[in-house]
Amino acid sequence: MIGLGLIGGSLLRAASAVGRVTWGATASEADVTAAAAEGFDVSADVEAALRRAGEQDALVVLAVPLTVIDDVLRKVGSVAPRCLLTDVASVKSSVLTSVRRLAPQTRFVGGHPMAGTAESGWRAGNAALFGGAAWVACVEEDTELAAWAEVARLALDVGAHVVPLTAKTHDEAVARISHLPHLLAAVLAAVGADGGPVPMALAAGSYADGTRVAGTRPELVRGMTEGNREALLPVLDEALGRLGAMRGSLASTGGLAATINAGHKGAQALAEARDVTPTGVRVNLSAPDAREGLRALGERGGRITAVADDTAIGEVG
Amino acid sequence: MIGLGLIGGSLLRAASAVGRVTWGATASEADVTAAAAEGFDVSADVEAALRRAGEQDALVVLAVPLTVIDDVLRKVGSVAPRCLLTDVASVKSSVLTSVRRLAPQTRFVGGHPMAGTAESGWRAGNAALFGGAAWVACVEEDTELAAWAEVARLALDVGAHVVPLTAKTHDEAVARISHLPHLLAAVLAAVGADGGPVPMALAAGSYADGTRVAGTRPELVRGMTEGNREALLPVLDEALGRLGAMRGSLASTGGLAATINAGHKGAQALAEARDVTPTGVRVNLSAPDAREGLRALGERGGRITAVADDTAIGEVG
């Protein structure tokens, strides 16, 4: 485990708790001290931890901020150039590009656990963080399926279910359901506070809900949104188009039915997606079309819930 | 109590629970049946309930949807033309205009409890709904302060604190902290669902928070937003201006620091507003500048927490 913040620290705890042999390293002295005090095998020597992983053919998990991921990948490329590698960053295309440039011989599978809080650092973590969460494990044209299965097993071991997607499909989806929410929350919090003390005194449920993630550390939000620029721009334009049409309608006819009904329908779509009785699906990981099978499952909103021998077992609504 | 839905039904329960003599009426047969079954003095005859209030000099609370408030005000004007009157609608200027036109001799004080859920109807209500909530009681140039004190006492009796504001100031504030959140939630829910099954499968905390109020009944959201058009348009333009600038920055330099930092600062402003140690304030309701005193308190983010004899007792941060 490289990086022992909220995600890396939680994953080190969770993987250890299910009996995996784990070790970690981070540049954060505070996180090393805190994790060591709890008995974990951790150090501040990232290169030594990577070398050990290379020697033991261990799965390396990069759980560092996006801003330093290239620096760490350079170390991977020089110290453990053929290791089994995954990451937990919230954008996947840019990490894939970096891996291809800086550590091209690694057996890499991009990953993203859809879990987290507004807090950060080792002390904010806990072994139960991933329970019930979706964990994207990327399947590209050249993804090695044995490596993919290793990453999926880790995610399943710590209580998540696995969603197989390409980096591109992942990035488009998180632009909608994570990056746009963060940016709309920021705009709402700014417009609310610009109104002075009266709006603050009257703020209740809808404002508290709508601004909650605006309290996230700005550098984390910048990392994920700025790092997903290509997928985020068209989604922002969709949102701006809807808001502009709404503004025009309010100014002219005074009516907001189109916007409000579309939003209500969207809220129902989320509830319905969670209410479907799923159908079982199996993907033979040694079949020639296994990558297509995994991606087709993910693109239909499905999930992998177990990996047994050479078969990924899942369900789709 | 005219109207026995979420707010009216909760207020009838809460006022009865503190020993007030209450009766109610509504056009909803279902709500009459449900409230009567719980022992409340209710009927489907709105005119009879209003006549009784006029005869007994009782406080009439209009808790009906904005779409029917003019119809009910016509009845008030004909059956109880000089009654003590308040309402609980989420916009205040348009109701004030209607009262001046349809029931001009009533002793009217506009009201708005900042409480509610996405549910509706008698069965959704409960006596504790207003505990800890802000309850705006409007102070206009011609507001009779004895009537204002009666409305404030009702709000205080059911556990709320009272915020004295003009209808105009109220409407500007709720455009920011209630109506804009509802519209942004609708846009987010629509853009999310437009992405198909993958975003729905990955949606987690930030999306769930940001879309929660998009599940509110569309006619309620339309009523409050369309009914507050004048105050809402400039607030929408502020939001569109911030989003447009953000979009431009992402497309050109790729940077989102300005947006994200402003949002983080806004989130802190809300937390700070709630963290201030308040100073006590007293307003003599029989003083010639009592209206100015009350409004000045409200405009600074303050609140009234008690009304004793002729004095409103409050605090401001």
Largest sheet report of chain A? 3 strands, parallel
Q: Give the strand tally of chain A.
A: 11
Oligomer: homodimer
CATH topology of the largest domain in chain A: Rossmann fold
Helix-and-strand structural type of chain A: alpha/beta
Report the top-level CATH class of the largest domain in chain A.
Answer: Alpha Beta
Keywords (chains A, B): Oxidoreductase
Protein name (chains A, B): Prephenate dehydrogenase
Family (chains A, B): Belongs to the prephenate/arogenate dehydrogenase family.
Pfam families (chains A, B): PDH_C, PDH_N
List the helices and strands and how they pair.
The structure is a homodimer of 317-residue chains.
Chain A: H1 6-17, E1 24-25, H2 29-37, E2 42-43, H3 46-56, E3 59-62, H4 69-79, E4 84-87, H5 93-102, E5 107-109, E6 111-113, E7 134-138, H6 145-157, E8 161-165, H7 167-194, H8 197-202, H9 205-211, H10 218-226, H11 229-252, H12 257-273, E9 279-284, H13 290-299, E10 303-308, E11 311-316
Parallel strand pairs in A: 1-2, 3-4, 4-5, 7-8
Antiparallel strand pairs in A: 6-7, 9-11, 10-11
Structure description:
The structure is a homodimer of 317-residue chains. Chain A is α/β, with parallel strands linked by helices and 317 residues long. Chain A folds into 2 domains: 6-165, NAD(P)-binding Rossmann-like Domain (Rossmann fold), CATH 3.40.50; 171-273, 6-phosphogluconate dehydrogenase C-terminal fold. In chain A, 53% of the residues lie in helices and 15% in strands. Chain A is built from 13 helices and 11 strands. Chain A has helices spanning 6-17, 29-37, 46-56, 69-79, 93-102, 145-157, 167-194, 197-202, 205-211, 218-226, 229-252, 257-273, 290-299; strands spanning 24-25, 42-43, 59-62, 84-87, 107-109, 111-113, 134-138, 161-165, 279-284, 303-308, 311-316. Chain A has a 3-stranded parallel sheet with strand order 3-4-5, with helices on both faces. In chain A, helix 3 (46-56) crosses helix 4 (69-79). The longest helix of chain A has 28 residues, at 167-194. The two termini of chain A are 34 Å apart. The interface between A and B is large, with 100 and 100 residues. Chains A, B: This is Prephenate dehydrogenase. Chains A, B: InterPro entries: 6-PGluconate_DH-like_C_sf, NAD(P)-bd_dom_sf, PDH_C, PDH_N, Preph/Arog_dehydrog, Prephen_DH. Chains A, B: Residues 1-281 form the Prephenate/arogenate dehydrogenase domain. Chains A, B: It holds the Pfam family PDH_C.
